[in-house]
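Weekly modeling sync, notes
Attendees: S.R. (lead), two postdocs, one rotation student

Agenda item 3: backlog of single-chain predictions. S.R. asked that every request posted to the team notebook include the full sequence so nobody has to chase files. The rotation student volunteered to paste the first one in as an example of the format we agreed on. Action items at the bottom.

Example entry:
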Amino acid sequence: QLQMVESGGGSVQTGGSLTLSCAASEYINSEYYWAWFRQALEKEREGVGAMVGISDTRYADSVKGRFAISRDKNLTTLFLQMNNLRPEDTGKYYCARALKYGWHWYEAQAYKTWGQGTQVTVSS
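Predicted structure, as returned to the notebook:
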């Protein structure tokens, strides 16, 4: 059974950067969506971005140009590089995996496996 463990969260000021990591117990391959979601207090979980194919990524409009998803050479760690962070980026960040067919990458209900999350707090 796939396990996913996030790390790298923390507190930064506006304009700062963080890199989140998600260690997976299976290879990160093109058969699935491998995504990052976030959830702020009293808000719904929202898709931040996903690896949807080999070297093919998608992002929410709110993070385009600031965030980047990649994976390591061993294909077992998913990264979320976050630059120029804003207070509205505050939330708990989760990595997740979903089978692609019949779903858009940003649909949270498609994802059956989630990590425990890591908190990101951006202060103004």
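Discussion: group reviewed the output briefly. DSSP finds no helices and eleven strands in the chain.
Action items: rotation student to repeat for the remaining queue; S.R. to check formatting next week.
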